[in-house]
Each structure stands twice: as C-alpha cells, then as structure tokens.
Design goal:
single chain; alpha/beta; Spore Coat Polysaccharide Biosynthesis Protein SpsA, Chain A; seven-stranded mixed β-sheet; 9 strands; globular; binds guanosine-5'-diphosphate-alpha-D-mannose
Length: 247
C-alpha cells in the first residue's frame, strides 16, 4: 500500500498501568528509530504510580516523537485501553497503528520491518511472533507463563483454526483500513482474549496475518497484570467467537 502524502502516519498505542520506570525508556527507544511521521499515544488508566503524569510531562515537552495521552478514570483492562486508543488513533488520521506493551518486552527496533512488511505484502496486519523461525522468548520468562502461552496457542488454534503461530501476541502493526474493516470499536475482550478476538475478526474478513520473528523479553520493572479472570476469559472467548460465527 502506498500513501499519497509520503511516510505513513504511524501511531504507536501504548496501554499503561503502573509503568513509570518503563514508559520513558520505551519512548526513548521509539525516538531512536528516527521514523518519519511517528506518534505515540499512551492510554493510561489512572495509574497509582503516576505513569499518567509522566506521560503528560513527555507530551508537554514537545519531544520527538510527539506523545499524546488518553486518560481513563480507572483500571479497565488492556483490551478496553487498546480499543479506546485505536479508536482515537483512527480519528486522528493514522495510516498505521502499532500496538505494543509499555514494559519493554516487545523490541521497538522491529517496528520498521513491520511497517515495511505491511507496505510490501498483502498483509492486513503484521505481528511480532515468538513462535516462527528466528523468534524466541527470553529464558527468564517464568516457566508457568511459557506453559500458559504454549497451551493458549494450541487451544485457540484448535478451536478457531487461525493458522497463526503466535495467536496471543500483543505486538502488532495494523493498517488503519484493517481496524475499520474489523470494526475495532466493537471488540469486547480483554487480555489474551483481546489479541485472539482481533486475529479472529481479521481472518473472518478474509484478510491476511503476517508474522515476523521477535525475541520477547521478560520485564525488569513493574508487574504483569495477568490475572485469573483474564485467563478465564481467555478460555471462554474462543468458544464464544466460534458460536457467534455467522455463515
Ligand atoms: N491502560 C491499561 N493498561 C494495561 C492494563 N492492563 C495491562 N496494561 C498494560 O498493557 C501492557 C501489557 O500488560 P501486562 O500485564 O504486562 O501483559 P503480560 O502479562 O506481559 O502479557 C502480554 O503478553 C501476552 C502474550 O504473552 C499478551 O497476550 C498480552 O496481551 C500482553 O501483551 C502493559 O503496558 C501494561 O501496563 C489496564 O487495565 N489498563
């Protein structure tokens, strides 16, 4: 896909809840990419550790890439934060929307490859995959997370037949047109299930998902927000999606 006005407007949507140590480092890594027309949109759920204030300071500093902040009143889950952020990015005229965690587990330096893959192939979305050749998970990622991730991929692919190696990946670059085609505003899931529902909607539209290898790092600061309710939702959502399928 080519964009008439030159470099595509790319918005990196970053949901945050208690990421005060990580967010400035992530924005620094995004700045190091020196990508033209790159923007960062932080979606903060009133983090008690003051992440939202730090994001505001970055926004006011007028730095490159420009940072904007969407404040929400309370913690409402990663999926809700992404839906709000992606909806804002679309209304602000983004051509490409990147989603990534704030905790430095996703390698920012893969973003140029993801954007290139979007523009040079038929892919509707490109995901940073741990499970294609060349991909990896850091050895210090806890064993129970590795096991959960392997199980979740097997489970999801058995039920929904997505044919995606890393069905729960949280690092992706979307054409804005794909987010409109799948009607991101109506996506209901959170956590792992959000990632799965987004992939499922893409496949149901007959659109292509490409995977590029990444090395997924364990976070050094802060904590994962993965909870029992997120895992329960993840177990139920594939069945719900399958049963809601029309045709
Ligand atoms: N605004 C907001 N942000 C949130 C919330 N919950 C989590 N986040 C933010 O979302 C990002 C990921 O959250 P984590 O809780 O650190 O995720 P994880 O356990 O490492 O899981 C990640 O990897 C999974 C695959 O292994 C993914 O399936 C999952 O979506 C996520 O990307 C972080 O930037 C975190 O601050 C929330 O309720 N609100």
């Amino acid at each position: 896909m080519t964009y008439p006005s030159g470099a595509p407007k790319t918005t990196v949507v970053v949901p945050t809840y208690n990421e005060r140590e990580n967010l400035p480092k992530l924005v620094g890594m995004l700045a190091d990419l020196k990508l033209e027309n790159l923007h960062v949109l932080v979606v903060d759920d009133n983090s008690p550790d003051g992440t939202g204030k730090i994001a505001d300071e970055m926004a006011e500093s007028g730095s490159t890439p420009p940072v904007s902040v969407l404040h929400r009143t309370e913690k409402n889950g990663l999926g809700r934060a992404y839906v709000a952020g992606m909806t804002r990015a679309l209304s602000d005229g983004a051509d490409i929307v990147v989603q990534m965690d704030a905790d430095l587990s996703h390698p920012a330096d893969v973003i140029p490859l993801m954007i290139r893959t979007l523009s040079e192939t038929d892919a509707a979305v490109v995901l940073g995959s741990r499970y294609v050749p060349g991909g990896a998970v850091a050895s210090d990622w806890p064993w129970h997370r590795k096991a959960l991730s392997a199980w979740a991929n097997f489970y999801v692919n058995t039920i929904l037949r997505l044919k995606v190696k890393d069905a729960t990946a949280g690092f992706k670059a979307w054409h804005a047109s794909t987010l409109r085609a799948i009607d991101v505003t109506s996506v209901e899931s959170n956590g792992y299930a959000f990632q799965v529902e987004m992939n499922y909607r893409t496949v149901r539209q007959g659109l292509e998902i490409a995977e590029v290898p990444i090395r997924f790092e364990e976070r050094n600061d802060g904590e994962s927000k993965m909870s029992l309710s997120v895992q329960l939702e993840s177990a139920l959502v594939p069945w719900k999606l399958l049963m809601s399928r029309k045709g």
